[in-house]
Amino acid sequence: MTEATLFSGPHAHDAISLRRTMLLVILALLPATLFGVSIYGWPALNLLLVTVIACVVAEAACLRLAGKPVAIFLLDGSAALTGLLLAMTLPPWAPWWIGVTGALIAIVLGKQVFGGIGQNLFNPAMVARVALLVAFPLQMTTFVAPRPLSSAGAPDFLQGLTITFGGGFQVDAMSSATTLSYVKTELGRHTPLDAALAPVFNLMQHLAGFIPGSLGETSAVFVLLGGLFLLARRIITWHIPVAMLASLLLLATLLHGLHPDTFPGPLVHLVSGATLLGAFFIATDLVTSPVTAKGQLLFGAGCGALVYIIRTWASYPEGVAFAILLMNALTPLIDHYLRPRVYGRDRKGEPLVYDGQREQAE
Amino acid sequence: MKLFRIKGGIHPQDRKQLTAGKAIEDLPLPALLHIPLQQHIGSPAAPVVHRGELVRKGQLLAHSQGAISAPVHAPTSGRVMGVGNYPAHHASGLSVPTITLKPDGAERWVAGASPPADPFRLEPAEIATRVAAAGIVGMGGATFPSAVKLNLRTRYTLQTLVVNGAECEPYLTCDDRLMQEQAAEIIDGIRIMAYALGVENVVIGIENNKPAAQSAMQAAAQAYPEIRIARLPARYPMGSEKHLVQTLTGRETPARGLTADIGVVVHNVATAFAVHDALRHGRPLLSRVVTVSGGAIRTPNNLRVLIGTPVSDLLEYCGGYTSTPARLISGGPMMGQPLPGTRVPMVKGSNGILALTRKETGGDTAMPCIRCGSCVNACPCGLVPLEMASFIRSGNLEGAVGFGLLDCIACGSCAYVCPSNIRLVQYFNYARGELTARQRAEHRQTETRRLAEQRSLRIEKQKQARREALARRKSAANNRRAPAGVES
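^ Those are the sequences you sent over. The predicted structure of the assembly is below.
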């Protein structure tokens, strides 16, 4: 025998591991990421690499400080995944220090301070994204229109380096508003919804992702494909995405139906901003979402409702990050109250009684 | 028939194809048999033979003691080499009271073992008595004395006998083969048990990964309309008694109760076969069918072995190891226990011997829990294993009890699907052992306190008595000294 004998079963294990889970999520994110890189060009690739590398380095440094085995935990892939998710939610032409600062916030404050993988209360990428948004509002809301790598106006490799690592780019000349922020501004000026949507909202472009927006959020189709892949591989269950999208779309349909001129309809909400990325990849973060199916339904519904409320009535045009962080804070509470019913017991935890049979037995 | 869904459960790789096609073979007579006196839940049996005695096949070696116990018999004729201690068929490798028998090869049966002409003419209680005398215990692995379960009709209103042929553990095919090869005998045993229990309904549950067993049993049960075959979806832990009953009746067994609380008694197919042997042929339980399998076994097989046969004999018959196994397991890979070595004997409850390679056992080093909830989805009992484990890690065992530690059936579904490879069942087993130890310690403390208080009370009483006696003597002496007239 090659192992000690005093341990309990099972003496078999499913072919899964933490690393496999993380790698599959990264794989599911790749189509949307590659698409983002291809339409926003070299600066996007630079920012992506900087953010991911900074996350991995920060993770290694923290593990070392904490005296944990660096190699084992680095190879689980969770730091790289956080970096990738963070980069996907950043404006693609943001300067390098946005990526690095974000990475430090995500890994150090968002994850390792709590005790490392599995211990954090909030989604690290969303913590970083919100902190960056509050601290650097200009850089975090400066988006560019797509400039595919081969197209005429696209920056070449050297220009890309200048944009990311040099002094940035001519903001006024090249920046472009996202759909949500443009519509929000116009609605604020009492422009009717149709007129506010007309210049920016084209369903096909939103589905494909040829719009100004964050690095990896714009393509509804590729994000959705990734999400379906995760569902098919059973990394996530349907509860959170379905509940989140259902509550968001329900509210949007309801208010749009009541006031078609002032509230954008469900389709706008579905394909703009970080709705799909949030529903399939961020709200479903295993660590920070509830563990029971019922809890996940409540959590998802809460996320969707908060997204709608923030987008519609708060001062920020996009609310996915805030919504998910707020619901993350409720996760322990949800897990405490929404537990499954134990076999053979009623909801209160008392043994079941069938038509007096038990009394008769005693 | 209509089936009901159970919560959770998993689909492990079943690897039954290694032995599913292998007909049961009789293992040749071993050189020595080591028959432990406790192969069942309850009190150990008390030996009635002594060293050097010649015994016959089927002769009583040790009789049962108390209400929950089972006797053991000589699996073959031969000489008792000793009544002493020998390593148990248990992970601990501790020695337990065991009778060692050297077979003489003559296979001489004990005289006077007469089967009844017709078991259906006996009193139901008489059937239970004969089953008890045959030393039959639950052969699915639980090893609870079967006669006790056959007597449940006196305390419960019973409607249904469920016969467990689910065999949901991966690798194991011994029940599958037995159902294919001895279906008529099993059905007969089932009918005798149903008669003893006084129930009208019999359901035999067999998973859909055993179509040959399903049709063999169906054919054998054709003549008896009260017996139905339920084709169960293959899903672990379908063979868990309470979950099997839920699948068949839609009713959950009340917590801390028995399936008899909802009018059902469950027996294993191999137990039914043993009952047939005892009631039709007057043979006590002397042997059982066991699956020898796993990636490290040269020729996996299904064997009929005498109780007490050393595990090494089985391995040898199957061609030994192809490579050094990572683990040697008794039972299935999900709930079986590791064996400390190959000299331990086979017992009534051991249905599998598995030599698993590192590749088969799987699982790397444990990583931190990421709260993914896979364990919650897998748990068939509605527990939250990750919370239980985290309470246990921090030493808060009561917290774990609050999340259902005592309702856990240790099926291992949670640990099987854990992406972080956390040995959840190990935590739960540890916590339960620790809780029991604490309860015992507490009990001992209160007992000690009670006895100490009684003792000081007793001493105080004695002192008091002495003082009173002294006082009486004194006053008596004083009275004697006093003038005679004072007293009256």
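The domain at 16-104+116-288 of chain B is CATH 3.40.50.11540 (Rossmann fold). Chain B has two domains: 16-104+116-288, 369-479.

Shout if you want it in another format.
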